[in-house]
Amino acid sequence: MSSYSDFDLALSKLHPHMYGKYVFLSERDGLPAGLEPFAQIREEEGLTSIVPLEQAKAAGLAAGKRIYRRITLDCDVSLEETGLTFTVASQLASQSIPCNVLSGLHHDHLMVPAARAQEAISLLEQLSQQAKGWLQY
To answer: What is the 8-class DSSP label of residue 83?
Structure first.
């Protein structure tokens, strides 16, 4: 008799997808007109925005900024599922890949250094394949 958890099933269905390049910006008074951030977080120090690199360049705001790629996990997991973010971040940390996680209602989004993004995708695909193996037992 097979037994698996929702967690195992979620890991088996990570389906990581890589999207464009982004930079993190922090503006106390908000963003200049015309920028369409992927995400924003209001902090004491100001508004942190994750903005497509090309938009930031056009606004003269990209100089000296670290460039990230967005990886979206295409598994629709409950916000109450425990351990998925930890497991994914740990997989990347095991190879010293920094990861900033943003959780939406439907998906988790990982911001990883652009130079390591393909490596991150490969690690996440390996993790997903491993979980598929667990489900076969």
So the answer is: S
Tell me the average pLDDT across 94-116. 94
β-strand partners of 103: 108
Handedness of CA 125, 107, 12, 100 (dihedral sign): positive
Residue 22 φ then ψ, to 5°: -135, 160
Rounded CA-CA distance 19/71 in Å is 6
Element (H, E) at 110: strand 108-113
Q: Measured between alpha carbons, how far is 124 from 97 in angstroms, rounded to an integer?
A: 12
Residue 118, classed as helix, strand or coil, is: helix
As to burial, measured by CB atoms within 10 angstroms (0-12 exposed, 13-18 middle, 19+ buried), residue 16 is buried
26-36, pLDDT tens digit by residue? 887 678 888 99
Q: What are phi and psi of 99, to 5 degrees?
A: -150, 125
What is the residue type of 44? E
Cross-strand pairs, 39: 50
* The model's pTM: 0.86
Number of H helices and number of E strands within the chain?
A: 4, 6
